[in-house]
Design a protein that fits this description.
The protein is of the alpha/beta class. It folds into two domains: 232 residues, Aldehyde Dehydrogenase, Chain A, domain 1, CATH 3.40.605; 182 residues, 3-Layer(aba) Sandwich (Aldehyde Dehydrogenase, Chain A, domain 2). It has 16 helices and 19 strands. Strands 11-14-15-9-8-16-17 form a seven-stranded mixed beta sheet, sandwiched between helices. A six-stranded mixed beta sheet has the order 5-4-3-6-7-18, with helices on both faces. A three-stranded antiparallel beta sheet has the order 1-2-19. α2 packs antiparallel against α4. The protein starts with 12 loop residues before the first helix and ends with a helix.
């Protein structure tokens, strides 16, 4: 997920002291045991649901100010996924909290074994600007369902949404257990220095490295939800009309400023041209209702990066290619056969530009993807079970979808996360509960029996008995 540079300059001592005070207060609340009961967790999750219902107009207005989104798109991207996530956890958290018995080997008997779940403590959630509620409230759902206190640090690149979260979260959640800290990259560094029990970061790969380095000094475990060049492999047996429509949709939804949108398409050569025509047709259909030809980009830095890709490409432009710096808009653009060495093919696009390349076989497509860093998501469009199995088995990615895109984000039953440079750790549903909690292994032994041969000095007979026990 693309993000602006973290400012690692000095932060004033007053701000550092204020942050330390916030974190110390959260630690006291957690130490009191207040966040451990199931009812407290359920109340926080219900509070998130109520906030999304009752303040929908304020939320969509803030998202329109930050990202230029219309109301319905903001509901789909930032409100609906969090309502689904919070409701899913609320209905299941009591079950997730139960201790889970485990069988033990014969040499441990008599004994009982189980896994019990406990909160980690105080968690830091660092959000991003592209889906500023989804990437803050989603991890927060995991944090409170696991019984933690939390600091939420929204992205300063979505300032209206950050201010709104700072105002609303204390109204709907336990304000002494969940705090919002606004600020830039220096604030993030000051927060990391506090030594949280877990850090959850959503953002770009380069910034993720800095977050990991900052957390390492405190030995703080980190979940990184980053980005990646997500491929969409399209085989000749795919339904091209449906495939084109689904791919095109991800290049206009949220201006394609999404870490799970398709970054490029690899289409079998025999259907590449038809697929391009159908994608162009779908994009034109999607934009008929809008007056502007381009879609809004979050800021000048991201706009200049995307405009640079268009200026540097030698690909055939099948659609779009225009941009307007005054309005920070870029036209949805389809590029045919760009060079793999172009910046648009080497860097995460994170915008409404779609390169489409021809490949001669599934082998070539798989080799192309695997020659590059592991993506957050991979997509394949095919009717063939054999093709599907090969892609799922041979392409390593954080997640995968067959015959559609991005739907994995709104399925809390499925773990969400990256692999390699696209991230580490998983959340959503029970996976988030487990990631932001401690799975404590417990073994209970009675005082009797307590055979003497189990202790030194070991006789020859004792050694034989012990060896025999551990072979069983």
């Amino acid at each position: 997920m693309t993000a602006d540079q973290v400012d690692t300059g000095a932060i004033d001592s007053d701000t550092t002291g204020e942050i330390a005070g916030v974190v110390a207060g959260l630690r006291r609340v957690h130490a009191s045991g207040r966040t451990r009961p199931a009812q407290w967790r359920i109340d926080q999750l219900r509070g998130i649901e109520r906030m999304l219902d009752e303040r929908e107009d304020e939320i969509t207005a803030a998202l329109a100010e930050d990202l230029g989104r219309d109301t319905f798109e903001s509901w789909m991207v930032d409100i609906l996924p969090n309502k689904i996530e919070a409701a899913h956890a609320r209905k299941r958290v009591r079950r997730w909290m139960r201790s889970r018995p485990r069988s033990l080997p014969m040499h441990q008997m008599p004994a009982l074994g189980w896994v019990q779940y406990e909160p980690l403590g105080v968690v830091l959630v660092i959000g991003a600007w592209n889906a500023p509620l989804t990437v803050t409230l989603g991890p927060l759902v995991a944090a409170v369902s696991a019984g933690n206190c939390a600091v939420v640090k929204p992205s300063e690149l979505a300032p209206a949404t950050a201010r709104l979260l700072a105002r609303l979260l204390p109204e709907y959640l336990d304000a002494e257990a969940v705090a919002v800290v606004e600020g830039d990259g220096r604030t993030t560094q000051a927060l990391l220095a506090q030594g949280f029990d877990h850090v959850f970061f959503t953002g770009g790969t380069e910034i993720g490295r800095k977050i990991l380095a900052g957390a390492a000094a405190q030995l703080t475990p980190v979940t990184l939800e980053l980005g990646g060049r997500n491929p969409a492999i399209v085989m000749r047996d795919a339904d091209l009309a449906v495939t084109a429509r689904r791919i095109a949709w991800t290049k206009v939804a949220n201006s394609a400023q999404s870490c799970i949108a398709a970054d490029y398409v690899l289409a079998e050569r025999s259907v590449r041209d038809e697929l391009v025509e159908r994608i162009v047709h779908s994009l034109n259909e999607f934009r008929k209702s809008g007056s502007a030809r381009g879609v809004r980009i979050v800021n000048t830095r991201q706009f200049d990066r995307l405009a640079g890709y268009l200026a540097d490409t030698e690909a055939r432009v099948a659609l779009g290619g225009g941009s307007d710096r005054a309005t920070l808009t870029v036209e949805p653009t389809v590029l045919v056969d760009p060079s793999p060495e172009e910046p648009v093919m080497r860097e995460e696009i994170f915008g409404p530009i779609l390169p489409v390349l021809a490949v001669d076989s599934l082998d070539e497509a798989i080799a192309f993807v695997n020659a590059r860093p592991k993506p957050l998501a991979s997509y394949v469009f095919t009717r063939s079970a054999r093709t599907r199995r090969r892609v799922l088995a041979e392409v390593s990615s954080g997640g995968a979808v067959v015959n559609h895109l991005t739907y994995q984000l709104v399925a809390p039953q499925l773990p969400f996360g990256g692999v390699g440079s696209s991230g580490m750790g998983r959340y959503h549903g029970r996976s988030g509960f487990k990631t932001l909690g401690n799975r404590k292994a417990v073994l209970l032994k009675p005082f009797k029996p307590d055979p003497r041969f189990a202790y030194p000095p070991y006789t020859d007979r004792a050694r034989k008995l012990i060896r025999r026990m551990y072979r069983a």
